[in-house]
Design brief:
Layout: E1 10-16, E2 22-26, H1 28-31, E3 36-40, E4 60-63, E5 74-78, E6 84-88, E7 92-93, E8 98-100, E9 105-111, H2 117-121, H3 131-163, H4 183-198, H5 204-222, E10 237-238, E11 252-255, E12 262-273, E13 276-278, H6 281-287, H7 296-302, H8 316-321, H9 337-347, H10 349-353, H11 362-365, H12 373-385, H13 399-412, E14 417-419, H14 433-436, H15 441-454, H16 470-474, H17 482-486, E15 491-492, H18 509-514, H19 521-525, E16 538-540, H20 544-555, E17 559-563, E18 567-571, E19 577-586, E20 594-600, E21 607-613, H21 615-618, H22 631-653, E22 656-666, H23 668-683, H24 688-699, E23 704-715, H25 719-728, E24 732-736, H26 741-750, E25 759-764, H27 768-786, E26 793-795, E27 798-800, E28 816-821, H28 822-830, H29 834-841, E29 844-850, H30 854-868, E30 872-876, H31 882-887, E31 890-894, H32 901-904, E32 908-910, H33 915-953, H34 966-976, H35 979-987, H36 993-998, H37 1004-1007, H38 1014-1038, H39 1046-1068, H40 1074-1097, H41 1110-1115, H42 1118-1145, H43 1149-1157, H44 1161-1176, E33 1196-1200, H45 1209-1228, E34 1284-1286
Parallel strand pairs: 11-24, 11-30, 24-29, 25-28, 25-33, 28-29, 30-31, 31-32, 33-34
Antiparallel strand pairs: 1-7, 1-9, 2-3, 2-8, 4-5, 5-6, 10-32, 12-13, 12-23, 14-16, 15-19, 17-18, 18-19, 19-20, 20-21, 21-22, 22-23, 26-27
Helix pairs in contact: 3-4, 3-33, 5-33, 5-35, 12-13, 13-20, 22-26, 23-24, 25-33, 27-29, 33-35, 33-38, 33-39, 34-40, 35-40, 38-39, 38-42, 39-40, 39-42
Length: 1287
């Protein structure tokens, strides 16, 4: 296969034209990610000097059976000498991917056709049935039962009517033998005849009409500009056309946090190294600006005209610390920046909004260094150069060495690729030194000539290089150490340019500074003709966290220059390049929650393991200070760990994502032994994952803590308002995230998911018994203040409101929040505690599930959906949200930073979480209201029309005859009454979008299925029966005892029924436009035109019953007009009277909103404001009027489980007494005497299975002051130790 070719099958890579034996893939067809992925040749085949020859391949490949796991693959290759080489997914090229940046790749096909992983993942289109469709299918069975009953009445009536004749009537014709049909058999035949006659009762055309209506609804959804995101140039995608109405009935929303509620733009904020915290205040100030400074005019104001530093200690990082916030783009001209500005404006939005590589927007790339850390980093970089293999690093606890290792870990311990923006994308690697030295004299002269010209443009040279500062570009005239002279291949002082090109060591910074050149020199170095530098570097990361850390290290001039499977090159602040040999890489996985890379230090020769991962994991893998012999070192280690943990808690309370960085130095012998174990694990086919996990655990222990980082994932715009609106609409919002608990809680407070006045229960335990006790305890306490919830009673499918008598006013009870982690969820699912968990969540305004896996997310969605029988919606943006999105009734994917897997598996795709507000509250309400009322109307229409034929059977001896021509009956549903319901279902708006957004509680109309439920269905059926009786018997009584024929009798009945049905439709319409009027009038006129033409031309088309000239004669009869006018009035009068009473005295929110909608704009706004003020005037927890009522305890409850070494009954008795005293204190002296301090009760869960929470009143939380007065203390409100109960 060749470059840019799509891979046709799953292929094991055996040869690559790349010298490093790697092949680059673009997996956009599989997961939507455009970042290049590396695949490497199977071990043993990478060191090939000649072209691969397939006919000489004699090895045996053993691998697993075909499966649909895209990221899992295991097998081994058995060589002719019986040795085995293991391989995994890193060597498999998947079907559908595109080869990039690799000239030739050769491999052997493992899976082909339908056995490929891509095909096995393509399960075909998913079909979800909407709630209305399920309800409609049930009502269809009722219609079938009704049809069966009517046909049975017809059959029995035919049998009884024929039985009244003493001898066979003349119209009863015998068969050829002269025998007559038995009466019972004649009745059975009549039953079948009646089915054919009355089959219109089953609304088959309703299904076709629904699909057409949904198509129209989707069209208007797509064209809503409010759901279009200008930055990403994306509008809403409707990937499932059959569940649009479910958008208006959602009761539970399950949301991911990262990338859904937040931007998923990871911005480096803070770090702690060796217990010292660096707050990066300058960087925080830069991030306070509400919008990214994307325009050139704004960038122009940021740059300053700076000269080169004279000494190497003042490297490029110093320049960045002086306010360099924005990089230079390749489209900018360093000489004439106005050109870049005009070019930017002429190109438009797309260039400014879309970074060339994911996770590389200006707000992510530009990190302002901390002024306290910057000089230490420069000292650490200088210290690095003093190392040698004869002079290894001192103790790992020295600050200088730890800072150096910290930034080396940020740069090395990742899977980030270095690429350029050229097409096809070029991977930057370090070229051989001899090749770079071959630069011709002519090119050097050309360079000097261009440099001379650039002196004329100094006044325009105020821009700064983004990835190549001048000091970095030209190097420094530095003394060369012995180790550097000895190992030119790995350490290049002044030998290479910043991104791999040759850099002459004879350039001196002082000379350059004296020549008056500045940062515009980068433009010359970027000239491809000179070959002195590659295009601008970009970091292609698989996750935004990795990109943020690499950008942070780059801000301190620890720059990742190139990466191959065997080596990674880092440029230090003074320009020195260090090339580390990569001995092994242990990738990140959700079980280990960490990543490690084993490298050989190019200066000391040591084998170092750099590890980064979740703090909950790394802190448990650190070396035990008690094992250290030196007391001073032990104290320092403990101090570092305690202070780092304190900083981690601080970061989490600020809503930052935390990662711990650690290292470990191992001996050569230990590494060789471990490597042999690792090799055996990779070559095994059975239990391969378990063996690989075991080898990783053997390596990743006894780590030395270097520090931790705090990365901010900022809230998306409009998230708090959207969540508040959804909550007003009666929608329960759950957040299911894999993030740590403190981070998720603080994001929840930021986006108004939790309020400071809420009682928050945190449950963290692994024990099923403990979990059950805590759930029972929490339930008992919540019920004490909220009262038991009684389910609504049902009577024949009708919901009757239940009478609840809570002990206190609901308005006086604060809201409850629940925080739970993944371990507790495991205990709940394994211990069969789902129903207790769900019962507790019924009292909670919001639920946060932290540290949850993708499987747990889908299990929670299925649990709520199935056990509570509610409509669920899941929204996420990453591959880990796919199972949750597919499990919900409606899955919404956000096209964000984590690829397109969530979008491709979703029913609807949006670009921003805030779009969910209008999608549900406006379009969801409209789609449900239109479709529900259209379905009810269709049932009414068919029943009303069919009953006319049924009533006629009582007057024709149940013979199955009709008084209406068959063609008229066909045209009735096909033409005359088909278009008005379609227009009604697509265009009708019961309430305007502005009112729906201003009054979110109107959404409850759809949640309660008020437009279409068993009651509305049966009322419409009864109304249809009444109207059919009126439409049949008024003409019957009018023409009774006259000599008119059958069709002359049927024509006024047909006309009356059409008029009544169309007028009924007009009464249902809430919006009147010219389209509605034309369709209704056109359908009515079409009936007369078709009838006149048909009756005038049908002379002998249906002998002997020809409807010739029937309509023409009727139109000349005044009785016809009188009947056609009075009968519809009589038929529709009860419905009109009911609607009038409902509109005058009805308490429905929808009716009130419709009245408000008809007011002028200014009056409407005033009415909406008064409505909302009445809603807000309801007493809320924390206000003065409810202080006399019993109030539940502490706004924050932590239930945590651990295993104490011992427990004392006497101690527990004291604690229990204190807890009871605290309870009394919190309830009796709420306002003026809050209870003191923290409490904890330690005991064995086996001795005391059921415990009440210790009651501690947070000072001022429920005082008579308003909640806004204590809201500023929201940060840090959720502390680990505050009023916690430890079991």
């Amino acid at each position: 296969m060749q470059c840019n070719e799509i891979i046709p099958a799953d292929i094991l890579l055996l040869f690559s034209s790349d010298p490093s034996g790697i092949c680059h893939l673009e997996t956009a067809n599989l997961d939507g990610e455009t970042n290049l992925k590396q695949r490497r040749v199977v071990k043993g085949f990478s060191q090939q000097d000649v072209q691969f020859e397939p006919e000489h391949f004699c090895n045996t490949i053993v691998c697993e059976k075909p499966n649909n796991h895209l990221n899992k693959f295991k097998g081994y290759m058995e060589h002719p000498d019986q040795t085995r080489t293991g391989f995994g997914s890193e060597s498999l090229l998947l079907r559908g991917c595109t080869i990039r940046n690799t000239e030739v790749a050769i491999g052997i096909v493992i899976y082909a056709g339908h056995e490929t992983k891509a095909m096995l993942n393509n399960s075909g289109p998913r079909y979800k049935r909407s709630k209305i469709e399920r309800r409609m299918n049930t009502d269809i069975f009722f219609c079938i039962g009704l049809l069966f009953l009517m046909c049975l009445i017809g059959a029995v009536g035919h049998r009884l009517w024929n039985g009244t004749f003493e001898e066979h009537p003349p119209f009863d014709v015998p068969d050829a033998n002269g025998s007559f049909l038995p009466l019972a058999l004649g009745g059975f035949y009549m039953f079948l005849t009646m089915i054919i006659l009355l089959q219109v009762l089953i609304p088959v055309s309703l299904y076709v009409s629904i699909e057409l209506v949904k198509l129209g609804q989707v069209f208007f959804l797509h064209n809503d500009l409010d759901l279009y995101d200008e930055k990403t140039d994306l509008s809403i995608q409707c990937r499932a056309l059959n569940i649009t109405e479910d958008l208006g009935q959602i009761q539970y929303v399950f949301s991911d946090k990262t990338g859904t509620l937040t931007e998923n733009k990871m911005v480096f904020r803070r770090c702690t190294i060796m217990g010292s915290e660096y707050s990066h205040q300058e960087n925080a100030k830069r991030l306070e600006t509400p919008k990214e400074l994307d325009s050139d005019s704004e960038e122009w104001t940021q740059y300053q005209c700076l000269s080169f530093p004279a000494q190497r200690a003042q490297g490029p990082a110093t320049l960045r610390g002086q306010g360099w916030a924005q990089p230079l783009r390749r489209c900018h001209s360093a000489q004439v920046p106005i050109q870049g500005h005009s070019r930017q404006r002429s190109i438009g939005r797309c260039e400014s909004s879309q970074p060339p590589v994911a996770f590389s927007s200006p707000i992510e790339k530009d990190v302002t260094p901390d002024k306290n850390l910057l000089p230490k980093v420069q000292d650490a970089a200088l210290w690095l150069e003093t190392l040698s293999d004869t002079k290894p690093a001192k103790t790992s606890l020295s600050t200088i060495s730890s800072i150096a290792d910290f930034f080396l870990a940020l740069t090395i311990c990742n899977s980030v690729m270095v690429s350029t923006t050229t097409e096809p994308r070029q991977r930057v690697t370090m070229p051989p030194l001899t090749k770079a030295l071959g630069t011709s004299l002519e090119k050097i002269q050309q360079l000097f000539h261009r440099l001379k010209l650039l002196n004329l443009s100094q006044s325009f040279s105020s821009t700064a290089p983004s990835d190549i500062d001048l000091g970095e570009s030209l190097g420094a005239n530095m003394p060369t150490t012995d180790s550097e002279e000895r190992d030119d291949a790995s350490v290049c002082s002044g030998g290479y340019s910043t991104d791999g090109g040759y850099r002459s060591s004879t350039w001196d910074q002082g000379d350059i500074q004296g020549s008056g050149l500045d940062a515009s020199f980068e433009k010359v170095l970027e000239a491809p003709a000179l070959g002195l530098a590659s295009p601008e570097l970009y970091y292609e990361a698989e996750s935004p966290d990795e990109a943020a850390l690499v950008h942070a290290a780059h801000a301190y001039s620890f720059t990742l220059v190139s990466r191959t499977p065997e080596q990674v090159t880092v440029r230090l602040p003074q320009g020195t390049c260090l090339t580390f040999d990569i001995l092994c890489t242990l990738g990140f996985d959700s079980v280990r929650k960490r990543m490690s890379v084993v490298v050989r230090h190019p200066l000391t020769g040591e084998i170092i393991v750099y590890t980064k991962g979740a703090d909950s994991v790394i802190m448990d893998l650190l070396e035990d200070p008690a094992c250290v012999t030196d007391m001073d070192v032990e104290k320092k280690m403990r101090k570092i760990q305690v202070r780092t943990q304190k900083h981690l808690d601080l970061y989490a309370r600020d809503g930052l994502r935390t990662l711990c960085i650690a290292k470990k130095v191992i001996s050569e012998d230990d590494f060789q032994r471990w490597a042999s174990f690792r090799y055996e694990a990779e070559a095994s086919l059975e239990n391969r994952d378990e063996l690989l996990m075991e080898t990783a655990q053997h390596l990743e222990n006894q780590l030395t803590l270097l520090g931790a980082t705090g990365i901010e994932d900022r809230l998306q715009e409009g998230v708090p308002d959207t969540i508040a609106a959804l909550r007003e609409a009666g929608i329960q919002l759950w957040v299911l995230t894999g993030d740590k608990q403190e981070t998720a809680i603080n994001i929840a407070y930021s986006c108004r998911l939790l309020d400071q006045a809420d009682t928050v229960y945190s449950i963290n335990t692994e024990s099923q018994e403990t979990c059950e006790s805590i759930l029972n305890c929490a339930l008992e306490e919540v019920k004490q203040f909220h009262g038991p919830q009684k389910p609504d009673r049902k009577f024949f499918g009708f919901c009757l409101p239940s009478k609840t008598l809570p002990p206190t006013s609901r308005a006086a009870v604060p809201e409850v929040g629940l925080v739970i982690d993944g371990k507790t969820l495991n205990a709940i699912f394994q211990g069969k505690l789902e129903m207790k968990f769900l019962e507790l969540t019924q009292y909670c305004r919001s639920v946060l599930c932290c540290r949850s896996t993708p499987l747990q997310k889908s299990m929670i969605v299925k649990l709520v959906r199935d056990k509570l029988s509610v409509m669920t919606l899941s929204i996420g943006d990453g591959a880990n949200d796919v199972s949750m999105i597919q499990a919900a009734d409606i899955g919404i994917g956000i096209s964000g930073q984590e690829g397109m897997q969530a979008v491709m598996s979703s029913d609807f795709a949006i670009s921003r979480f805030r779009h969910l507000k209008k999608l549900l509250l406006v379009h969801g309400h409209w789609c449900y209201s239109r479709l529900a009322r259209m379905v009810v109307y269709y049932f009414y229409k068919n029943v009303c029309y069919v009953n006319l034929l049924f009533w006629y059977q009582f007057f024709c001896g149940f013979s199955g005859s009709t008084m209406i021509d068959y063609w008229q009956m066909i045209f009735f549903n096909l033409f005359f009454t088909s278009l008005p319901p379609l227009i009604f279902g697509v265009l009708d708006k019961d309430i305007s979008a502005e009112t729906l957004l201003a009054l979110p509680e109107l959404y409850k109309n759809g949640q309660n299925s008020e437009c279409y439920n068993p009651m509305t269905f049966w009322i419409s059926i009864m109304d249809a029966f009444y109207q059919s009786l009126v439409c049949f018997f008024i003409p019957y009584l009018t023409y009774k005892d006259s000599d008119i024929d059958v069709f002359t009798f049927g024509t006024p009945i047909n006309t009356i029924s059409l008029t009544t049905i169309l007028l009924h439709q007009a009464m249902e319409m809430k919006t009147w436009t010219i389209i509605h009027g034309l369709v209704l009038l056109g359908s009515f006129l079409m009936y007369f035109v078709v009838s006149l033409v048909y009756n005038a031309t049908c002379v002998n088309c249906n002998s002997p019953t020809n409807p010739y000239w029937v309509m023409e004669r009727q139109l000349s009869d005044p009785t016809f007009y009188l009947v056609c006018f009075l009968t519809p009035v009589m038929a529709l009068l009860p419905r009109y009277f009911f609607l009038s009473l409902q509109g005058t005295y009805g308490k429905s929110l929808i009716l009130k909103a419709q009245k408000i909608d008809k007011l002028p704009t200014d009056k409407r706004d005033l009415e909406i404001q008064s409505w909302r003020s009445r809603q807000k005037s309801i007493p809320i927890p924390g206000e003065g009027q409810c202080t006399h009522r019993p109030v539940p305890p502490v706004p924050k409850q932590d239930f945590r489980a651990s295993t104490p070494k011992s427990s004392s009954p006497h101690k527990w008795k004291c604690k229990e007494d204190w807890a009871l005293h605290g309870e009394k204190c919190s309830r009796d002296h709420l306002k003026d005497h809050p209870c003191p301090g923290d409490s904890s009760a330690k005991l064995s869960s086996r001795e005391y299975p059921l415990l009440g929470p210790s009651m501690t009143m947070a000072s001022g939380a429920y005082s008579s002051k308003k909640t806004d007065e204590y809201r500023p203390s929201s940060k840090g409100s959720h502390r680990r130790s505050q009023s916690s109960l430890t079991i």
